[in-house]
Amino acid sequence: MTQIDHETTQVEAAAFRRLLRHLLHERADVQNIDLMIHAGFCRNCLADWYREAAQARGIEMTRDEAREAVYGEPFVQWKQRHQKDATPEQLAAFEAARQRQ
User: Fold this and answer.
1) What CATH number belongs to 30-100?
2) Domain residue limits, the chain
3) Which of 1, 64, 66, 99 could link 47 by a cystine bridge, Cβ 3.0 to 4.6 Å?
């Protein structure tokens, strides 16, 4: 790996950690369904991508372990504290967003 590749990796990792902190501490109020509607991904997607990246490097990781890395705690606990039931409006917007893909 060249120095540039290593530095790029470090920058990308720092940006990812900042995104996680932002979602955990500054915007825990933003629901996953809203992220899916507006951005096309959510915290669970990040956890899946995290697990896939680990597995591509030979690191075994369960879905629950990946979610805990993204949520900062077991998903069940985060869900109890932060996740609300989706409103009919959110469900309709989610379906409309899926149709656009």
Assistant:
1) 1.10.3340.10
2) 30-100
3) 66
